[in-house]
From TrEMBL:
It comes from Streptomyces galbus. SUPFAM superfamilies: Xylose isomerase-like. Residues 60-231 form the Xylose isomerase-like TIM barrel domain. GO terms for molecular function: zinc ion binding. InterPro entries: AP_endonuc_F2_Zn_BS, IolE/XylAMocC-like, Xyl_isomerase-like_sf, Xyl_isomerase-like_TIM-brl. Pfam families: AP_endonuc_2 (PF01261). This is TIM barrel protein. It comes from the Bacteria.
Length: 389
């Protein structure tokens, strides 16, 4: 979906396909048929933006086989779909029964992360619509915090510097500019937007920036205004933003609140949980850990990294951080100029919701994704952007 900002800029809105993960190109093509095109039709749109997640095997096929890339581009066109952004964070296995810490491997100290991200950039340059010259890729925020000594930090810096050089060369070769954004996430080396400033200013390249995920922003209790202003002052670009909401519990000391939270503690994904205690951010790696003892104080609200559907808050006594989403979006695209031009709805947790809240079948999932996109569209038009055909 495309929108015209009051300054004349085109802002793109997509939804991320990691909600229906596939490891192979055949699986990706099935996604387009079974999920993406039905969402477009449900919205009554002639064209729908999607943020593709391409696992290692699918990416290798597309990067090494020009005919396969042309076929994917043709299938996108035939189904009324377009791609300006890729989710390059998960490497493989995002549909596994247990993802947890696996999603952080390989990290940016491993050469495979550099090669995979370079391949994604080349693929995206070949998938961009004819009238679009800039694409974006979101990626791992360097690595998980517990395995990042100085030598790995130095290797990560070298990899990002090499990536910047490759992105420049790609732009010279194709006329398409692809930018890559580290996606701050709780528990990682770059947990917050503030943590991104040092490594990204050290790289100091306009094609390497940040992907602001509004669920992660909220989970770490970051204020959108301060976070985005600090990025701007440091000249760190917001390459893209993922629109998402975190799980919020006002009174984690109450038994009924803990019982409601426990329904969201599931075995597939990591749900990092945070609170602010005496002005200091404290947290656990997973929601079950937070609920299992005295790991977190209960005098202040908790937030958990669980992507809650944008259009549907959880039942009381829980809520979601939709206020942070609205505030961040207003500051990203509601000013005189947009701070980013790529927005991506990223609720990948539909099938990890408590059983009563999960979609029953493909049609209900289609309806849910369409409802999220409709809400995002309304938020954008309320900010003065005009939806384009």
């Amino acid at each position: 979906m495309r929108f015209r900002h009051p300054d004349g800029t085109t802002v793109h809105l997509a939804y991320c396909t990691n909600v229906h993960p596939a490891e192979t190109l055949d699986g990706v093509l099935a996604q387009l048929r079974d999920h993406c095109e039905p969402v477009r039709r449900r919205l009554g749109r002639d064209r729908l933006g999607i943020g593709l997640w391409l696992a290692r095997d699918a990416a290798r096929t597309l990067d090494t086989d020009p005919a396969a890339l042309r076929a994917l581009r043709g299938e996108l066109d035939r189904r009324g779909l377009e791609v300006v952004t890729l989710n390059g964070f998960p490497y493989e296995g995002f549909g596994a029964d247990e993802v947890k810490y696996r999603v952080y491997r390989p990290d940016w100290a491993d050469t495979e992360r550099l090669e995979h991200t370079t391949a994604l950039a080349r693929i995206l340059a070949g998938l961009l619509p004819d009238d679009v010259t800039e694409g974006s890729v979101s990626t791992l925020p360097l690595g998980w915090r517990t395995a990042w000594p100085a030598e790995r930090a130095a290797a990560g810096h070298r990899a990002l510097t090499t990536l910047a050089e490759r992105l420049d060369a790609l732009a010279d070769l194709t006329g398409r500019s692809v930018r890559v954004g580290l996606e701050p996430e709780p528990g990682c080396v770059v947990e917050t937007t503030g943590d991104a400033l040092a490594p990204l200013t050290a790289v100091g390249h306009p094609r390497i920036g940040v992907c602001v995920d509004t669920c992660h922003l909220a989970t770490s209790f970051e204020d959108p205004a301060r976070a985005l202003d600090a990025l701007a002052e440091a000249h760190v670009p917001v390459v893209k933003s993922q629109l998402s909401a975190a799980l919020h519990a006002d009174r984690p000391d109450r038994p009924e609140v803990r019982s409601a939270l426990a329904a969201f503690a599931e075995p597939r994904f990591l749900h990092q949980t945070r609170t602010v205690d005496a002005g200091r951010l404290r947290g656990t790696d997973d929601l079950g850990e937070a609920l299992g003892g005295d790991a977190l104080p209960t005098a202040a609200p908790w937030r958990a990294h669980f992507h809650v559907p944008l259009h549907a808050a959880p039942a009381a006594p829980l809520t979601a951080t939709h206020d942070v989403l609205r505030d961040a979006l207003a500051r990203l695209v509601g000013g005189p100029r947009p701070r980013t031009r790529h927005l991506e709805v990223e609720t990948y947790t539909w099938q990890a919701l408590p059983p009563a809240q999960r979609p029953r079948g493909r049609a209900q999932l289609t309806d849910g994704i369409a409802a999220e996109l409709s809400l995002a569209r309304d938020l954008l038009t309320d900010l003065g952007l005009k939806e384009l055909p």
